[in-house]
Amino acid sequence: MIICHCTQITDHDVHAAIDWMRTSDPDTIITPGKIYHALGKAADCGGCMPLLLDTMRSNDKMRVPAQLQNLRRRATQESTYEGRPQSNRISQQSAAP
User: Fold this and answer.
1) Does an H or E element contain 95, and which?
2) 21, 32, 11: which is closest to 65 by C-alpha?
């Protein structure tokens, strides 16, 4: 099946690129841009992006590496520190009129 008419990319090309990237680096995060780059092509009009993403998601090797899973959840739990020294923060009690 043709995924991108502009650059003549098929679903076989997408799956082959994913397989090649996963074999060369099992911990890589695979993006549409990396697939285009691996195929030596560049996105033209972008109309193929929904079909390209569906094809990527259907590949069994499209998984997030274990050490990168749940990073968003951990980042939001640890985001209470704003990067300022504790002494420069206005306490809730002294801020009240």
Assistant:
1) helix 92-95
2) 21
SS3 label, residue 31: coil
Query: What is the Cα–Cα distance from 34 to 82, expressed in whole angstroms?
Result: 34
pLDDT in tens, the chain (97 residues): 999 988 999 999 999 999 999 999 888 889 999 999 999 998 888 899 999 999 999 998 887 767 777 777 655 555 555 665 556 556 555 555 5
Q: What's the alpha-carbon Rg for the chain, to the nearest Å?
A: 22
Q: Please list, residue by residue across 52-73, b when 16 or more beta carbons sit within 10 angstroms of its beta carbon and e when fewer do.
A: beebbeebeeeeeeeeeeeeee
Question: What residues are paired with 4 via a beta bridge?
Answer: 9
What gap in Å lies between CA 89 and CA 74, rounded to an integer?
A: 24
